[in-house]
């Protein structure tokens, strides 16, 4: 009798291997207290040693926006500058920051935790999801800050602001999906961490964070069509459209549909892609 | 799992197998970097450094059956494949050939990697407990026990980076052993802390062992192997050298080392 037969006879199950997707998702769902605590405690640990603590979560992007505002405000001609440029920039920088933080640090969410992955058993998807949760929790006070700044500049809150809620949910799904993709790819090719900052940079310059694509490329219909399909640009346009008024902030109605399709597709695709290599993450090489 | 019922009743069931390791090979390729630089030609070597991959054959066909209620000691020199075998049994390292079967999910005693140095002990108890698969309710229920066992009640509010290495080791041990396990792997965890704590931790291990069906103990201390195990497996360079009675295997191993 072979050992495999022996195992079958005694009702033993094979160790390792990857559970079917449905069971895997349920396992991840069961681990949500772990994911949430890991995210929250990491923020605490990050801030614990700085005197300003949580203050930095708000201060960092504010300084960022101020730097970009000064530099690009001077460099850029009025042609590419929309109305309410300061608010335009503020919203752009903060929303893009959420994306790039997930994109950048999320890629390392498995490789940086190699020790954890090699010593404990839990669905590995917890790690990229914890990272996105962490960024999400850090993004919330920033959204509050954006709303405050917009109100201080004299814009009255309207019901349209509520559009931000579904938008941020979709944006988070999009970021989570993308993070799962880059987290897995980094396991296969470490070199990717060297390239991702450039990809992030490229998106920063092409998504219309600090200038209006519609104004700058007015007349280049083909370019504008392509930009219309770019999810990060769409998300920022929707965020600005929800908060600000004026001819520069009219959002093409199909953007909502596109952003929804993009986010859900990236999230589901990313989960499947990540799950497909579940047993690979614990390997030492 | 879909074998007919009459088949399983016909099988001899005393004592049942807990873990079956069936011809397990683990082999992986690593990028061989950091070649030794040699004298004068080191400059040229740097320029034309070829990044060859080297394959490491950590386990070369290991097979055994561990039964319920056994404490299996695993011994061998550094690099003999002990830790690889244990990680394979837990399912952390995939096998490149062969398979491992278990009656329930084996777990490894260890939680260190999940803890955050900048967080307080209290936070780390919660995080570590969640990481090893306890629910928040279970952690709440055992919180006091964990803290008292680790003996860090007075420092629980302080960040873990301020703890002494003994305190950290105690806390890790207390968290890791808070859960009951059916199949447990202990990798040299006995030798933490001072003498007093070692005694308590050995007692704890014994309790867990009685609770758990099956325990694997990886250790370099032949004394703790002899004291706690009723079966020993000796690995050497990825091969299973011997499997059997602790006294026999340990003396064979000690003779082998002296040669």
Please, could you describe this protein's structure?
The complex is a heterodimer of chains A (about 280) and B (about 260). Chain A has helices spanning about 5-10, 20-30, 30-50, 55-75, 85-105, 115-120, 125-150, 165-190, 190-205, 215, 220-230, 230-245, 255-275; one strand at about 15. Chain A has about 280 residues and is mainly α. The relative contact order of chain A is 0.14. Chain B is of the alpha/beta class and about 260 residues long. Chain B contains nine helices and nine strands. Chain B has helices at about 5-10, 40-45, 80-90, 120-130, 135-150, 165-175, 195-210, 220-230, 245-259, and strands spanning about 15-30, 55-65, 70-75, 95-100, 105-110, 185, 215-220, 230-235, 240-245. The radius of gyration of chain B is 21 Å and the shape is globular.
Topology:
The complex is a heterodimer of chains A (285) and B (259).
Chain A: H1 3-9, E1 13-14, H2 21-30, H3 32-48, H4 55-75, H5 85-106, H6 114-119, H7 126-152, H8 164-188, H9 192-206, H10 213-216, H11 221-228, H12 231-243, H13 254-275
Helix pairs in contact in A: 3-7, 4-5, 5-7, 5-8, 5-9, 5-12, 7-8, 8-13, 12-13
Chain B: H1 5-10, E1 17-31, H2 42-47, E2 53-67, E3 71-75, H3 82-90, E4 97-102, E5 107-109, H4 121-131, H5 136-150, H6 165-176, E6 183-187, H7 195-211, E7 214-218, H8 222-228, E8 231-236, E9 239-244, H9 246-258
Parallel strand pairs in B: 3-7, 3-8, 5-6, 6-7
Antiparallel strand pairs in B: 1-2, 1-4, 8-9
What labels describe this entry?
heterodimer; A: 285 residues; mainly alpha; 1% strand; B: 259 residues; three-stranded antiparallel beta sheet; globular; disordered N terminus
Can you give the mean pLDDT of chain A? 86
The largest sheet of chain B is:
6 strands, mixed
Q: What sort of overall outline of chain B do the alpha carbons produce when their principal axes are compared?
A: globular
**Uncertain runs of chain B:** 1-14, 36-43
Number of domains of chain A: 1
**Structural class per helix/strand content of chain B?**
alpha/beta
* Cα Rg of chain A: 22 Å
